[in-house]
Amino acid sequence: MSALVTLNIAVSALRRNAMRTALTALGLIIGVAAVIVMVAIGSGARSSIESRIRSAGTNVVTISAGSNQFGPVRQGSGATTTLTAADADAIAREVPGIRYISPGANARQQIVAEASNWNTQVQGAGPDLPAIRAWSLQFGTFFSSQDVVTAAKVAVLGSVVRDQLFGPGTDPTGATIRIKNQPFRVLGVLTSKGQAAMGPDQDDTIIVPYSTVQKKLLGITHLQNITLSTADGVPFDQVSDNLTVLLRTRHQLTAGAPDDFTVRSLEEMASVLTSTTTTMTWLLASIAAVSLLVGGIGIMNIMLVSVTERTREIGLRLSVGARDVDVLLQFLVEALVLSLAGGALGVALGFAASYTVSRVMQWTALVTPGAVLMSFGCAAAVGIFFGFYPARKAAALDPIDALRYE
Amino acid sequence: MSAHALLVRDLAKTYHVGEVDVPALRGVSLSIDPGEFVALTGPSGSGKSTFMHLIGCLDRPTAGTYLLNGRDVSRLSKRELSAVRNHDIGFVFQGFNLLSRTSAIENVELPMLYGPAISAKERRYRAAAALKAVGLGSRMDHHPNQLSGGQQQRVAIARALVNNPSLLLADEPTGNLDSRTSIEVMGIFQRLNAERQITIVLVTHESDIAEYATRIIGFRDGRVRLDQPVAKRRVASDELAKFDAELEERSA
User: Fold this and answer.
1) Does the ipTM exceed 0.90?
2) Which residues of chain B approach chain A closer than 8 Å at the C-beta?
């Protein structure tokens, strides 16, 4: 019996009970759509986290003063005073594969402009910071290395601070603000970067030379952190090892003593976050897959009913020469057509629902070809798996009993 | 040997119901020649239906041999029996067994779907020819629920004929029909038997229906008790004229 004829018989049998077919397929439609939407939301979350981390700058490595390792006496980050600008110079000189480096010292301060004031993080940094963070200026210029040498009272504003002090969209270049009662000249405004991944608003900041924070704001000689970017293709592990060896030597740590600094890469943090969202995605998808399974059981149920209802038809087909394999295929193809049609509609519904979710809830929902293929494949597998038992039951019928069935 | 359309020797069938063996057929030996029109009669439980199922290749005998057109089919596999049913045997049932919501012509095409591959055009052509042969050429696209009982049975006969089988088996074909339609259907069988030399085996418990055949084989308790030619054969066209005349008489 040709495949086309078999398909034709299956389709006309399904059309004969259109309502029942539709309801049975609905189980699978919902299952497939649920898997697609869940995976779409998960992938969307992951890609948005990834893109936010990318926006913080790629190949970025941070060294923070203090350690998060266990030791006899543990101090919080920031309490350690061993990290200095000289360390940053030494790193730039001696560790290969480093492109930009920026020493950092931060202070939370009240900022006062003519008409308004705002409390924000004052970041002390080097002139390389915009290059490291891939951060361009909306107005004006960034400060120079000369400003670092002289600990000049100059500042570059994040867009949120500019909005708060001078009003949205304005160019305050050349204006004067007061930090800790000292006048600072505004050199420029950074472009908006948005919320950091699971962190504060990156635009709610003021950047000044790190030496200015050290001497004019805090009166310290150490650094809180060093941010650097590596050249393309340099593995983080290698840079991290070199940094650790250099800093341990410079800080005269004996073997066995814990590091008094922590080296971290944004890539590393990104991969932790990504793996968390991946786990969440799989969790959501497997919950959705349960509904796919329930849909499959619905198919089996209706196919069993169908085999019973059509016992005489099966008997007749056997009497006019159908082989058991013909009957098996007929019902298997029927279940498969049902599940594939359900799967296709489910994919369509999944696309529509993902689009709606992303529009209405402002979530990024990313329908991946993998999720579509997987859920469609699952639907087909469910059809074959749950269609097989009823089909085998039909094929095993005795022609005489089937013909006599009332 | 091969001169017989059908030859059975010591054919027996025993059903196992739980622990008990129920012998339905206890050794039947007979032969039927090509072109014969045989009626199998007997009370229920006599074994006539079991015999019919065996010669229809719907079941396999417990013992004995069965030669169909000279070929031993009593030891064939299930799959080989399917091919024999498809190619050599046509079935007509009491309940017509047509597929509902399927047109007459598609019902007739059904046996061709399970045989050697035939083009859709050829299938349609042969099904249409079979329907014309039973006088339903104008109702090919009607569905069973749009046809009378007699018309439905004629569709079933066309379906049985479409693969040109050598043997036509009819199991109580008039059981669900009124008297006049029964005569019409028997007329079709007689005509097919005469025109095409097709061998017909008919199961019936109505003695008047059996008299349309040329030979009656009576079953009782799983054995053949009677095997004789029909002395005064009924001819459907005459019976129909008689029936209508009686009807007119009564109404007048």
Assistant:
1) yes
2) 53, 56, 58-59, 78-79, 82-83, 85-87, 91, 93, 95, 97, 99, 101-102, 110-111, 113-115, 117, 159, 163
